[in-house]
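The instructor's notes for this session suggest beginning with a concrete chain rather than abstract definitions. Hand out the sequence below and ask the class to guess, before any prediction is shown, which regions might be ordered.
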Amino acid sequence: MPSVVTQKIYSYLKEEECFGGYKAAEKYKNEIQDFYNASAQLLNSHSRNISFAFNATDAYARVLSSIPFEKNQIIITTDDDYVSNYLNFLALKEKYGILIHRIRTMDSGELDMNHFRELATKPGVALVAVTHVPTNSGLIQDVYSIGKICLKHDLLYLVDACQSVGQLPIDVQELHCDFLSVTGRKFLRGPRGTGLLYVSDRVLNMGLAPLFLDLKGADWISEDKFSIIDSAQRYELWELPYALLLGLKESILYALDLNLESIRDTNKQLIQRLNHNLTQIKDIHQHDRGIHKSNILTFHKEGKGLEETTRFLDKNKVYYSVAHRSNALIDLKKKNREWVIRFSPHYFNTLKEMDQVSELLEAL
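After discussion, reveal the predicted structure:
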């Protein structure tokens, strides 16, 4: 996280230490409201369409709970959706008898839009749910083209932007999405335990709301009746970690100040250098497909097991993560891999560091 993020968190916690939660929240109420304004600016939206979440999966689950699924209704998704999302789909299948249809993936890694057009015309489609950038791959899925087709057929559309917001410019108006879930801790460089949810005006006007509400999302107007509030904050709970919320706001302002287009361009230079370097190294196999790729690169080195690889990277102070088959069952099964190493260079990295890590991998 940038230092301004942690400083904001610490300063708010100090207020809570001295004056308690209620007084601190009252003192910072304008700054807290500015979280919604900054998030709206990030996504080209309005503050009424923004809800705080504890992470992207929390936001995603609240969306799914707000849709009144019925037996044999269809969720359309992809082979590259996030593991927690897919587990939610399977839970809905088990509980409500919904059907899960996946858009075909072509050999290039791109989605087969003709196939999606066919799926979109099927009766009973309740939701289209697509992950913009999968956690296990540098693939960028064409969520914008999906959105245009959803708009044409009046389909509810949920985009998981967990890995894309913060490294790529995102415009929900161009996406034509009804929901967009975001985490704070990844490319936005915000604190863990934060995220946000975009909810379209169409959804608000439809009256959709999470299955479980509290006094933040609804008004108790009589003994046996409530009314939901007229904003995306109906998807929130009243009790929020305001120190972390303000930290997330600072990370958003930080990214906006740097400019998302500039971040994207810098990141592109980094990933292109790293990709080029690794293609020159014998026995390094990269596993990312697609015409457009993000700043996630996955690979393994032939003849090197997971334990040996991670021990070497740790020893040389290289930061990475591991995607296991259980994290991306469909994709890694097709790639015949039990695991891959994931690098995620960001704009604070340098081209020199891309060269340094490549030289290390050559020595592995």
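Then share the key points. The chain has two domains: 3-258, 260-363. The chain is about 45% helix and 15% strand.
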